[in-house]
Structures are given as structure tokens and as C-alpha cells.
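Many introductory courses stop at the sequence. We go one step further.
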Amino acid sequence: MRLFLALMPPPALRRRLGELAEWAHARCGGRRVPDDSLHLTLAFIGEVSEEKAEGLSTWVEGLDVPGGEWRLDGWGAFRRPGILWVGSQTPDRAMVNLQASLWRDLERQGFTGRPSRFIPHVTLLRRARRLESDGLPLPDLVWPYRQVALLRSFTEQDGARYQTLARSPAP
């Protein structure tokens, strides 16, 4: 099964992100990420056996996640896959530290694949025809986070769908 660690937005923020996705889709085309799939990936783990997934679930359920707030105040794009996203104009030190800490723990468990660069973002569009954010409303959102989720990704004809396997304890 294909797994990753993520932050899931609270409902009100998910709705606001969905509104931004609608604006972006109207302007840029492509495939809009459904509201229930909006997230911030902290660590893509990849294909994992069921046994290892159970171990990861137990680990996540015992994580002590330092809370923080992430400010989303800018648009960005990854040109090659045609992804339009929202994120921060300046790095969020607490978020970067959380991601690095999770990867250190994953590596101790034998997982590999830590990216050389971490760009916190929420993907709103895939395969966008245009990647210009000119004319789109500037995001000004705050995402309070306190919990990490272990998600399983299913690739379907109309895109990826996610199933939550475990969550770190709520504060």
C-alpha cells in the first residue's frame, strides 16, 4: 500500500482552500483537487507492506506533535506536472522542523526517500493548462496544526483518493 504522512486542514480552512481551488480552476483549468483530498504532505513514504503499515500506524498514534500555525500567503507552481498550489512566501521554521523530525524517525525505522528540499504546499490543481496566479485572490490563511495523519493513497481514474489509517493524539 502507498502511504504518506500529512497534515489535514480543519473544516473551515478546508472550505476556504476549496474556494481558492475554484478560483484557480476557473482561471487555469486542469483537474481540481476535491476538498476532501486537500492536505499538506510532510513525508511521502511510498509502497509499504501491510505489516510495516501496522507498525507505522502504531508509531503515528504515539507521536507527540508540537503544535504550530502555518500562514498560507502565496501561490506557487510545479511546472512539469502542471501543479498549482498555495503555500508560504517565507519558510515556516516550525513546519520545516516537524518534517525533518518525522523523516529522522522514519529513517531510524528503515524508510528512505527524504527529499532534498521541502516546499510546504497544498496542491489545488493538477494538469493545469495555465500556471499563472495573476488575477487570483491572494491567500491570507492561517492553518493551526496539532496532529499528523498517516494516509493511504489509492489511484483511481479520476485522481487519487485517501484513507486515514492513523492519527497522532489530539492535544
